[in-house]
Amino acid sequence: MKAIVIDHCCAAEELRVTELPMPEARQGWVVVKVFAAGLNHSESLLRQFEADQPHINTPVVPGIECVGEVWDASDSLRLRKGDRVVALMGGMGRSFNGSYEEYVLLPESIVFRVESTLDWVSLAAVPETYYTAYGSLTECLLLCEGDCLMVRGATSTVGRAAIQLAKAMGATVVAACRRESSFAEMMALGADKCVIDNGEIARQQLPARPNKVLELVGPRTLRDSLSCVSTPGYVCSTGILGNQYTVPQFDPIKYIPNGVFLSGFFSNYPTQQSIDGLFRLLECQHIKPQYARVFSLDQTAQAHRLLEDGTAGGKIVLSINK
Asked: CA 263, CA 214: separation in Å to the nearest integer?
């Protein structure tokens, strides 16, 4: 079968299709025929910086998510051959081979059956991106109808998904963007208002203060986000788009305002229940998953260059088996 394999840190142009033996199912693991896979920033980081680290089990096939059909269900009691599934996280593409291949061997625990009418490419835009947005909104921000949510980092893939999902859940949505040229696109996704993110939104005269903020820029703007919300207010720190990974000398007593609750969403442990909830929302509200570009497995180098440059304007999808 065809696959992309990396055994060291490399440039995007070094990603080439190779041949691997078909994987064989074993106890607790299932083989999935991969139809498509969404690309993620973490896969670019793996290729550029992490592949030489001892915690990466190289040589490895990258890819932290995929969609496809169960090819061999092994000893699974809940999955059957032919089931339409999504798979994500749990060490995929780092500890064991991931989705940049035609057939992938995965722990049953990270493979989830889905009921969906979406085509394979649209379905591939969902797993990690929409699950991260959905989990942040439901598990951390406890988003309810009537809430006012600000999405900071709105033009990112997770930000776009969060706008769609939050609007479908009955919230008023404020999109924070670096450029006014993005406003029309954010409004088309469902945002009610847009504001320029100059790093100091709390100092701006907002039409209404949000009571909840999805922070996707990360520690670089976290303190400002905590100062944006009304009280009681909720802030969920999910992304690190600002390329700052920690808050230096973090003092929670002084850093977090009274009456504001700070949480963070870690997407590494999805459950069938949460995946079911996400897909019910997508199907019932007729939400169209967003993606920007589609590449074949043979075009992975080109796709990764676009991923690294950050100029795709949305989710990139690999179409693998057709």
From this structure: 10
Nearest to 204 by CA among 173, 189, 225, 218: 225
The letter for the amino acid at 166 is A
Which residues fall within 8 angstroms of residue 207, CB to CB, at 6 or more apart? 193
d(CA 69, CA 65): 13
SS3 262: strand
Cα separation, 273 vs 44, in Å, equals 30
pLDDT of 311 higher than 90: no
Place of tokens 């169209």: 288
Predicted pLDDT of residue 243: 87
- pLDDT bin (cut points 50, 70, 90) of residue 130 is very high
| 263 φ, ψ (degrees, to nearest 5) | -135, 170
DSSP 137-194: IIIIS---TT-EEEEETTTSHHHHHHHHHHHHTT-EEEEEES-GGGHHHHHHHT-SEE
- Which residues, in sequence order, are CB contacts of 62 under 8 Å at separation 6+? 4, 6, 43, 46, 47, 93, 98, 99, 100
Give tens-digit pLDDT for 277-302: 999 999 999 999 999 999 999 999 99
Burial of residue 183, with CB atoms counted within 10 A of its CB: 0-12 exposed, 13-18 middle, 19 or more buried: middle
Whole-angstrom Cα distance, residue 131 to residue 53?
A: 28
- pLDDT given at position 92: 96
Pairwise CA distance, residues 264 & 195, whole Å: 23
